[in-house]
Protein 1
Amino acid sequence: MKKSELKELMNEMTLAEKIGQLVQVTPDFFNQSGEITGPAAEWQLSENKLFQIGSVLGTHTAEQVATIQKSYLEESRLKIPLLFMADVIHGYETIFPIPLALASSFSSELTEEVARLSALEATRAGVHVTFSPMADHVMDSRWGRVLESNGEDPILSAELTRGYVRGYQGTDLETETERLAACVKHFIGYGAVQGGRDYNHVDLSPIELYQNYLPAFQAAIEEGVKLVMTSFNPINGQLMSLNRPLIKETLRQELGFNGVVISDWNALEELLAHRVVGDKQQAAAEAFEAGTDIDMMSDCYINHLAEYSDLDSHALDEAVYRILKLKNELGLFENPFRGIQEEAKPIEGALRIAVKEAAMKSFVLLKNDSDTLPIRTQQQVFLLGPKASSKDILGAWSWIGKTEQAIDLAEGLTEQLPHLTVGAAESWAEPSEAEYVKLSEEAKASDVVILALGESSEETGEAASKAEICLPEYQIKLVKRMAAANKNLVVVLFNGRPLDLTAIEPYAKSIVEVWFPGSEGGRAIAETLIGQHNPEGKLPMSFPRAVGQLPFSYQAYSTGRPLTEQNQQEKYVSKYMDVGNEPLYPFGHGLSYSKLSIEAITQSAEVLTEDEPLTIQATVRNDSAQAGNTTVQLYVEDQVSELVRPVKELKSWQQLTVAGNTTAQCTFTLTAADLGYVHSNLTRYPDLGKFRFFVGLDSQNTLTGQFELCEKSEGL
Ligand code: BGC
């Protein structure tokens, strides 16, 4: 449809029809045969109002979409097609590893491919828009939603977010009908909920906001993301659904976003519970004034926006136009059944291969003493633990995912190991003493014991905050009992957040973090455990030593009394009395079966200027026969800065394959812009002067050098 036709359509719309476009409901509103309950009953929507609504969220099948769209187009006066949105977070039916796992790949090529393939499946089910990527900056693994995030580094998160947006949206939504429009969320600050408790209060300084929270959203906007979802939380007392300065000034003017702004689920009605509005009419009026275009699943707009006597008709037209424009960009006026194909070519086979590859790239080998891994296929292996034969490996967002089709670890290992015994202790209960005796005997008779431990998907994701992030007592006990029976103990961890592994770490020879690995999890893990695949993932979030270290980031700020190797015994330094300051496993950590290390670093100059970037070369050495992949990381520290700054910040990373018993090199280019940070005037620019840089295979063990940022090249 041409722009002029869209405008003509808008001229025909009544006030009620315009407001209807701003409303989003669930499919059950359209399925009102039988007793009507829940919000659909409370809202008391007339048929007329229902067939003015603009969008639907959370359909399950192509048939459901087709039925709703068809009846809507028959009943509605102007026949403006409905927009269908859904949470396609890491796959639709075929489930990829959770986003935090994908972030362990440090690869935006991977997030792009995962998003492309997820869109392929979701569009066939009639979905037009996904509520993904989640670009929230996170530092607190008590918050269950860290599993949907890209981890604790803002630059890494921004890069991975770019990949997701590119993969979902492609280059032209109208012609590429197997792509989805993306909705980046949650704008903004949601990851900073106090105490890691979901839906809690947020208080953030503007500098933190600009430095760490905005970059991933900015990246999504630069990639052309079509929608932004506001978050549930307030920022400095102002709820995001009402936050006019952050929506209208920061998001729209500064970041240049001109797409659709949607609230989170029922967030407008929740303004009443926050006690910042007195009734739904005030909620509707203030949210609209602040810049919320779509009201997701509350009746504030549909039942109360028209009552607002100062409703600005021009602003209303702009909001409606943004929604109609999105429908038009998706080609819905020409084809309201976009993506739904009568005879679709099966894609599941190809998807499952991609899922397995993505899973393998996301596993992180946390520990591997005495080369316990890889397992030799002739070894006698005993597998047990609550996750050994569990298909609960898809993660909290796999609402359409087919759990029964997931490959669990026992199934994966059975395909590879002729001498495998799978033990009991599969349930989420503690073995009895008699069972323990049997398990210990089996463990003693084996060469290697694999313990599959972790969290259930219910314990992770939205509304799954935890005050303790250790494994449950019975799992810790299982580790100790099995370690007493067999020292070759391998722990495979399925979880959605960095856990506190301090209690089990000394007992396990090897620990492999597999997150929630998705539909092909068991196979991908089995191939990794036997060395057909060499682990290469790196932690996108630090694993703390104790929950009391949270919130935590490797980007610790300088303090006036830093803890050093020399002053460990002093009292008046910045430290805990009971645990160290460092995490158990730092950001960027991840081992390989190959023996990889940074052998040397060289730099092109001692000085960096605006016209002359610095190049830094790193040589990585492999002291083993097996080729390995790794991610080489470059960090920087500003020696003297206007504001207190982190002692280490990731600036760049490179992925490298190092053949057996050789070295390989990679080159980083560091520009003046890379050294910029948000100053007290909220602008990003670098400080002239001295810097240190660090190159490592994680954020802690690094080789270091220095350079100076000068205004001009010497001789100019
Ligand atoms: C979540 C969003 C999600 C939305 C729609 C909310 O509860 O916070 O992330 O996209 O529901 O399902």
Protein 2
Amino acid sequence: MIACLGRIVHGSDDDVSTLFNSLNLQGTVENGDFSGIASKDFGGLNSVKPLYLIKPSGAEDVARVVKAAARTPHLTVAARGNGHSINGQAMSDGGYVLDMRSTAENHFKLVTVNGSPCIDVSGGALWEEVLTRCVSRYGLAPRSWTDYLRLTVGGTLSNAGVSGQAFRYGPQTSNVTELEVVTGKGDIAVCSETQNPELFFGALGGLGQFGIITRARVKLQQAPDMVRWIRVVYSEFEEFTRDAEFLVSQKEGESFDYVEGFVFCNNDDPVNGWPSVQLNPDQEFDPSHLPQISGSVLYCLEVAYHYRNSDNPSTVNTAVSRLLGRLRFVERLKSTVDVSYVEFLLRVKRAEEQAKANGVWDIPHPWLNLFVSKSDIVDFDRTVFKKMVKDGIGGPILIYPLLRSKWDSRTSVALPEGEIFYIVGLLRFVPKGPSVDKKVAENREIVNWCIKEGWDFKLYLPHYRSKEDWKRHFGNQWTRFAQRKAGFDPKAILAPGQRIFKRGTTSTTRQ
Ligand code: FAD
């Protein structure tokens, strides 16, 4: 019965029930169409029509679908997390899309590994669901986050998962001890550092190329009650980077618990200017405090300090003042607010709600994310921040340092060479129309500039189309990446939207 799948080309209702019955699925199947979730993503730049949208009930369903695709000469399978990719990475043109959100409720079990708490969660669960359940049930929380939590566990682990805690704990890929994965051969495998390590490290940061993550075991820590959230302003890039690098290089207990930063414009633009700094709407940014020599671009360091309700307020104040006292931000340009830990982690959800109310959440997002080595970040600032995007981008421009030693080189993530590198995020919100193409071209210009200058950089959430570009991206890891593909997904069935390997062969890449 399964073999007949390849002959279903156009999905009618009959085909849907044939597929459903032939696979003996516990989940559901829908025809793919251009208006469904599987043909879109957050980027809003691409649209394709999948053959079927399948809502699996768990790993067995996922394995059945992958095996069915393997019996055809051409079908591919894309796991879709929450579709927050920018460039169609979770899409499958004419193939099967697995909506992993249908598996969100699976698992969720507290376990102890070497005396430390971990939580087993579904690859289709949102980090927001993991947060709210872990904190309310156990008073525990994962250690490493993304800024925005309406992303799935499987989706971020396939990339890295980075936020202001990563300088201390590493990315989310450094904070899981075990995965359950359905490989491109349709095998269900449990893997860890010691059991199937090649699959474990391959899948982490593996862009969905080696398997579909159906369960992850995530490390937990005691959740704090409260967070003191602080932003301070710099007019000089060198002072901003000096302080940011100082904070991320300190030992635990001698720094903040979260360190991020962003670039903003020295004007009153509500999105890109002074108002973007204030955490407390009652406070106004007073530009008269800025040094006279300030340019058109400014920098904001964003930090957070965790504490418990039972802590003595003066102890918290002293610890925060001591840390701030070591920094050289512009005096009096500081914004502070105390919020609950959960509220802090859900901060981008509030921004999402506002953007939805203003009708800007669903417009195109030609985003560009890069990792740029410390050795090239001053040049990057001079060329990109101070020239190319100096008037703002209609959304945040993130920049903060990370430490390579907190990343496991056995995973599939490609990183710059230096120990300190910066994540740079140009998170553009662009109204539909010709300016979208212009912004995509501007992104390409930035990447080409980095290549031309020979800077030590990598794309984060990479998006390339040619084999040459992918090989350059992975550098000396390309052979390992290609070997892992040949071992775990030899027919190149999985994650076709990444456009790395072409169905049917692992030796060619889409051109
Ligand atoms: P999708 O976009 O659905 O999928 C991404 C890729 O992973 C696809 O190739 C897909 O096939 C594959 N995939 C999905 N699920 C699985 C699975 N279970 N197993 C194997 N492969 C799978 N990233 C950060 O690191 N830090 C941030 O702070 C951050 N903030 C963001 C904020 C917003 C508003 C947005 C839109 C994105 C942000 N991202 C951030 C990027 C985000 O991590 C990636 O876009 C991620 O891929 C999105 O997750 P998703 O669950 O929507 O995955």
